[in-house]
Amino acid sequence: MPSFWLLKCESDVYSIHDLARDGRTGWDGVRNYQVRNFMRDAMKPGDFGIFYRSNAEPPGAVGVLKVVRAGVADPTQFDPNSDYHDPKSDPKAPTWLMCEVEFVEAFPEVLPLERMRGDPGLSEMLILKRGNRLSITPLTESEFSRISELGRGQV
Q: What is the pTM of this model?
């Protein structure tokens, strides 16, 4: 049985249209231990996610993706030219992980955060909790389904 996730990315860094063009990408650059642990311990191939654009106007859900690999060593930690380089990370026991995702669909329009905030079916979503700044958060199956329905304009 798949799990469900909300994955945040700034659209000027990587967008749903970039993922549609590329088909598949590594979700790298995560430098938060809780999110790393989600990818290591809970995320698995076959899980689905909502692609959420942050730091945009408006912020919101823009599409669906599928996890194809999880808990993979993030190569940016070993690249001295990367903003995400971590000189303390050991290639034999990497500190930072990433997942690989593939494109499933783009929503016709952005589903704004404010619309999600006002939907009773989404009231318990972690992204709506005060102070939550995690780049990947778990979703319940019903939250995933509701965001997908709203994003597709089916309600």
A: 0.94
The dihedral of CA 114, 7, 53, 131: what is its sign?
positive
pLDDT digits (tens, 9 = 90+) for 56-101: 999 999 999 999 999 999 999 999 999 999 999 999 999 999 999 9
Going by C-alpha positions, the residue among 78, 80, 97 that lies closest to residue 89 is: 78
Beta strands at 24-27 and 97-112: parallel, antiparallel or unpaired: antiparallel
**What are the strands of the beta sheet with 4-10, ordered from one edge?**
24-27, 97-112, 60-73, 48-54, 4-10, 136-139
* Residue 115 in tokens: 């619309």
Residue 41, classified by CB atoms within 10 Å of its CB into exposed (0-12), middle (13-18) or buried (19+), is exposed
Number of helices (H), then strands (E), in the chain: 4, 6
What is the Cα–Cα distance from 52 to 67, expressed in whole angstroms? 15
Instruction: Tell which residue, 62, 68, 47, has the closest CA to residue 10.
Output: 62
CATH number of 4-152: 3.10.590.10
Question: Where do the domains of the chain lie?
Answer: 4-152
Please give the Cα distance from 150 to 90 (Å, whole number): 43
Using the structure block, give the residue that is written with the tokens 């430098």: 31
